[in-house]
Write a structure and sequence with these properties.
Length: 250
């Protein structure tokens, strides 16, 4: 195992602050196991470089607005967001549900944009930047359905399987049946496999025949699955195809 560097330690501290929202130096010492002097030096640099700020009233540390600036620049440089935004808006208006856009990194689905229907009394929120496992999400299963079967199976066998809900896919045969159904119908569904009461319908987005991301609508399972499922799914698939054509210059 590679030795932990000073940069590793600084990034660990930064990520812990981000996860906590705000935290004290003593909590960081306890969580990391690093000496208090080491944490203090790291925080001094992060504060000086404006990645972290300290509340003068309660002495807690939190991320600064510079992190938001960096996040915004990442989104600005993602071509898929620019192409998808107007299509996402239209899809949200047509379905009345939350529309999600994801990219894939390190065999995880990463939420990079989201539009919610402000008129809906019950809305679904997944934090932009959140990562979800491929086998427990509609967008992830849409991605896996397009991979060679052996590759998808190798992923499932090697990944950590967590029972998020009673519907989480933990058995190999269940996973394979679900993937085959996804390939057959042309879109993926998540029937409360990651969060109780929440479902989603998803389709991949391609750029020159290579997967560039995926989009989905999410909402209460009672609204997504029933008489309207086929209509909602066709809207998701059509919207993904529109974005794919734009990205591919067609």
């Amino acid at each position: 195992m590679a030795q932990e560097t000073s940069l590793d330690k600084a990034l660990n501290v930064l990520e812990m602050i981000a996860q906590a929202g705000d935290t004290r130096l003593s909590t960081l010492v306890e969580s990391t196991g690093y000496p208090a002097a080491t944490i203090h030096r790291i925080l001094a640099v992060l504060v000086r470089r404006r990645y972290v700020r300290q509340d003068p009233a309660n002495r807690k540390y939190m991320l600064s607005l510079k992190c938001l600036e960096i996040s915004s620049r990442v989104k600005e440089n993602l071509e898929i967001i620019t192409a998808a935004r107007p299509v996402m808006q239209k899809l949200m208006e047509q379905t009345g549900e939350t529309v999600n856009l994801v990219s894939f990194e390190d065999m995880e689905a990463v939420y990079i944009d989201q539009l919610s229907n402000t008129k809906s009394l019950l809305r679904m929120f997944t934090r932009v930047g959140a990562r979800v496992p491929l086998h427990s999400s509609g967008v992830g299963k849409a991605f896996l359905s397009g991979r060679p079967p052996a590759e998808a199976l190798e992923y499932f066998r090697s990944t950590k399987k967590v029972r998020y809900t009673k519907n989480s896919l933990l058995k190999e045969d269940e996973f394979l049946r679900d993937l085959e159904a996804t390939r057959s119908r042309g879109y993926a569904v998540d029937r409360e496999e990651f969060e109780d009461g929440v479902g989603c319908i998803a389709a991949v987005i391609t750029q020159n025949d290579q997967v560039a991301g995926a989009m989905s609508i999410s909402g209460p399972s009672s609204r997504l699955f029933g008489a309207n499922t086929d209509r909602l799914a066709s809207e998701v698939v059509r919207s993904a195809e529109v974005i794919s054509k734009q990205l591919s210059g067609r």
